[in-house]
Every structure is written in C-alpha cells, then in structure tokens.
Amino acid sequence: MSILTENWEERLKEQGYRITKSRRTVLEVLEASPIRLTPEEIYRRARRRHRKLGLVTVYRTLALLEKLNLVQRVHTEAGCRSLTAVRLDKGHHHHLVCRTCGYVEEFPDCALGSVLRKLQARTGFAIESHHLEVVGRCPKCQ
Amino acid sequence: MSILTENWEERLKEQGYRITKSRRTVLEVLEASPIRLTPEEIYRRARRRHRKLGLVTVYRTLALLEKLNLVQRVHTEAGCRSLTAVRLDKGHHHHLVCRTCGYVEEFPDCALGSVLRKLQARTGFAIESHHLEVVGRCPKCQ
DNA sequence: CTATAACTGAAAATTTTTTTCAATAAGGAG
DNA sequence: CTCCTTATTGAAAAAAATTTTCAGTTATAG
Ligand SMILES: [Zn+2]
Ligand SMILES: [Zn+2]
Ligand SMILES: [Zn+2]
Ligand SMILES: [Zn+2]
Q1: How far apart are CA A140 and CA B124, in angstroms?
Q2: Closest Cα of chain B to A102: distance in Å?
Q3: Which mean pLDDT values do the consecutive 10-residue runs of chain B (142 residues) have?
C-alpha cells in the first residue's frame, strides 16, 4: 500500500467523511496514473472497477479530495480540468508536466522563499500561497 | 495612452489581424481593470461602451489576445476563467493576485533560472515554460 | 443488528464555451 | 473618398462541462 493510501482514509475519517467504494476507486485510478486525468477520463477508468459509478460522484469525490489536498489540479494553457494525485504526502512541492503526454512529476525544490519575502515587503500583500507549474516534454516525448 | 494601447494595434497588424471596435473595447476594459475579470464580466463592462457587442465576440477576442500574449489567464483554486491584461510589455513576469478582491499585480522577479536548470538535468525533461502565481491578500483586503 | 445520516446514481438544470452562418465593416487599391 | 475583398461579427443553436435535486442505498456508530 502506498504512502497515499496509507493516509487518505485517515484524512477522510478525521474530517468525518466515510470511506466508500466510489472514493476508493477514484483515488486508486488517480494514484495508478502517471499522467494527469480529466474527470471524464477518471470516470471511464474507474468504471472498469466499479460499474455502477456515476460521473456525478466522480465530480463530487474530486471536489472533496481536492479540498483535503489529496488531489491537485493541473493548470495548462489548454485548460485546467485535469487532476493528479498528491504523491508526497507531506511537504511543499510543485509539478513538472509533459506538454505532450501529460506525464506529471513532482519536485520539491522551490527557491522562492526569499523572492516571496521581498515581494511581500515591497507590495504590502500578505502572501499566503503560491502555485508553480513547469511545463516541458518528458524524455519519452522529446 | 498606455504602454499597452501603444503596442497592441501593432502586434495585431503585424500578424494580419484587423483593428476592430470589439477588440479595442475588450482590451480597454481589461486594461482599465485592476482586478482580473471573467469573460462574462468583460462582456458586461464592454457593453457599456459598445452596445451591440456579443458575448461570442468577447470569447473570440480573448482567445486571440491570449494567443498574442496581450492578455493572460489567472489561475485560482476557485477556477481559471478570469483574465488580466499583460501590463509589462516585454520580459518575463508573474502575477500576484489578491484572494479576496482579485486585484492583480505583476512582478518581474523570478529566481527560478537555476532551479529549472537543475530540474532539467535531473529529470531529463526539456523544460519549455513555467507558470508561477502568488496568492495573498492585498493591502486593502487584509 | 439497527438506526441514522452520509452518500450515491439518474435525470434534469445550469453554466460555460464553441460552432454555424448570413450580415457587416476594416482596410487596401484605385 | 469609393469600391472590393475578406476578416470579423452577432444571434441562435449546439456542445461541453458542471451542479442541483431527490429518492434510494450504504457506511458506520452503538
Ligand atoms: Zn488553471
Ligand atoms: Zn510526455
Ligand atoms: Zn484585495
Ligand atoms: Zn518565471
């Protein structure tokens, strides 16, 4: 069992949510996929394991998982509909995404600390979070 | 006349596009707004100046302006529908966005060069671009 | 096992975006 | 300036994406 599955049930339970077949299946699909997936794609894959699953439930589940930070949206010029499982269970990280095949790799390096501090001082903003996404072509797609 | 309006006509003409009332109005609306706007919001504001404008044209114009890099999408957890004018006409920059009111400020600092080079070496990706967005609360909204 | 409240699927509704197509208007040629 | 060509536009319709509703189902505490 992976880092994610060790923890996601706990995280749901902590917050009073139930562990259901739909949630388990959606999460398994995302976890098993090296590439980002749209709700529709998740639905198609998940139905292979859970026939009666409805697309609505996929949407609802994704919203929940996103709220609990178990799943994250991948933003691209082409649209921001697809999602990816959060693999490093703890700690700050960002995504490196392949423009061609959608392969997602997490990376922990984030040299933004001092830049953000300066930015905060200069602008008067109370900086709360940041989102970084790096786009390129993976070794296979070059 | 602002930096933007000095240049956008040229950029369109260079590429063989025409300067139309719709395009002018959409751009003026975005340029005049300190906050990010959705296509719908742009449409409502633009219609005050250009009565017969259609929402379809707003969509089409935004797609074009985005392609020409005169306008940029703002990504947030709540959705990625809104846009903002690109104010620094040249050079690499990112956005600082207020979570509450949507105020957008551009900033040129980007300390990612070396991080990205290392990332490229380590992962084998051919890195092509990156997107950074910093979220917080602006001075007014704190 | 039972009670109960969370969860689900199907259908419908809503929202967002794109396509189609006839009418209009920008901009170059004269 | 006027004419011509072709890009552009608006309205309506279609398509796509997402959310709501609601009655039936199921997870889980006790
Ligand atoms: Zn986005
Ligand atoms: Zn790839
Ligand atoms: Zn603000
Ligand atoms: Zn940068």
Answers
A1: 9
A2: 12
A3: 74 93 97 96 97 97 95 89 88 92 93 93 96 95 94
B125·A99 Cβ contact <8 A: no
Class for the domain spanning A3-136: mainly alpha
Short-list B107, B78, B73, B75, CA closest to A120: B107
Closest residue in A to B94 (Cα) is: A132
The nearest alpha carbon in chain B to A76 belongs to B131
| Rounded CA separation B70/B7 (Å) | 9
The shortest CB-CB distance from B138 to any of A112, A125, A138 is to A125
A118 token code pair? 């300066």
Q: Which two tokens stand for residue A50?
A: 């859970």
Q: State the pTM of this model.
A: 0.92
Can you give the residue ranges of every domain in chain A? 3-136
